Predict the 3D structure of the following.
Amino acid sequence: MIEVKNITKTYGSGDTAFQALKGISFDIADGEFIAIMGPSGSGKSTLMHILGCLDTPTSGTYKLDGKDVSKMDDEELADIRKSKIGFVFQAFNLLPRTTVLRNVMLPLIYAGVGEAEREERAARSLTAAGMTETHFLHKSNELSGGQIQRVAIARALVNDPSLILADEPTGNLDTKTGEIVLGTFQKLNEEHGRTIVLITHEPDVAEHAQRIIHIRDGEILSDKKHVQRKARQHIQ
Ligand SMILES: Nc1ncnc2c1ncn2[C@@H]1O[C@H](COP(=O)(O)OP(=O)(O)O)[C@@H](O)[C@H]1O
Ligand SMILES: [Mg+2]
């Protein structure tokens, strides 16, 4: 599904140029659950922005489903984001005085999906993310941290993406709530076949993936298959 070859990313130019990625290569197969782990500043978010077609590499190639995205223009990148990729960010901002259901419907407005179908798909993806129907009409500022992150996952799923990219999705959560979120990703991977790339600086979190790529200072230190640790808290 993903083929990354010798990707570099340089921010700025001249004296202030900074190379955040220094030649990164890996493949990710359809249906894999992989973690990209590294300390703060190692280039994880930079890499995720490239994988998510939010940015392009300075050099190297990135192929998604056989298509070279390194050279696409903004419109083509936006199309891919809309149809193939779901994002879960740590700094996820739901609209506070808006219902859970409406928050999840939002990406579909941009995708041009009609109202009735938007509602139906939002409800389905909330259920897949483990939200109970009684919460659908709650305002998002009435939710707990774990519930907010489930809404974030539902929102990432609503365009039916084959690839889910999650940047530090458990970063603001206590351990127990984090386990629930990781269990949700495992379920989406196992039962729904989604390819998941989980970005984290925490080894405990990375162990929930099937494979871990370690990066440091913009370079890959290791890329290993791993015995997946099952999340303790499965959603009901
Ligand atoms: N837009 C930018 N302009 C300049 N430097 C940046 C920019 N974004 C990130 N960097 C630098 O690139 C390095 C990697 O950043 P980042 O990818 O955010 O790392 P991580 O997500 O692993 O913490 C850091 O040193 C950061 O300061
Ligand atoms: Mg980051």
The chain has a mean pLDDT of 90. Residues 11-12, 18, 20, 38, 40-46 surround adenosine-5'-diphosphate (ligand 1) (CB under 6 Å). The radius of gyration is 18 Å.
